[in-house]
Design a protein that fits this description.
With 83 residues, this protein is an alpha+beta fold. It contains three helices and two strands. It has a two-stranded antiparallel sheet with strand order 1-2. A hairpin with a 4-residue loop joins strand 1 and strand 2. The chain starts with 14 loop residues before the first helix and ends with a helix.
Length: 83
């Protein structure tokens, strides 16, 4: 699954730099996560870094973007292959 940011976001700016895939960006009102870039930090860390730094716990799994650990790892390899 990709992660999502809920409307409880307070725009504190700590999640965006914590994302190793640059999946988090400033949306019109709150930060948002590009699900095509989100690997839940699989391949980088044991836990999603945005969830670790979020002071209000507003970054749950996105139930509309279900992915297995294997799919997330494959996405990680695709994203880092060009780097």
């Amino acid at each position: 699954m990709a992660l999502m940011i809920t409307d409880e976001c307070i725009n504190c700016d700590v999640c965006e730099p914590a994302c190793p895939n640059s999946a988090i960006y400033q949306g019109e009102e709150i930060y948002e996560i590009n699900p095509d870039l989100c690997t839940e930090c699989v391949g980088h860390y044991d836990k999603p870094q945005c969830q670790q730094v979020c002071p209000i716990d507003c970054i749950p799994l996105d139930p509309d973007k279900v992915e297995s650990k294997e799919q997330l790892l494959e996405k990680y390899h695709q994203l880092t292959a060009s780097n």
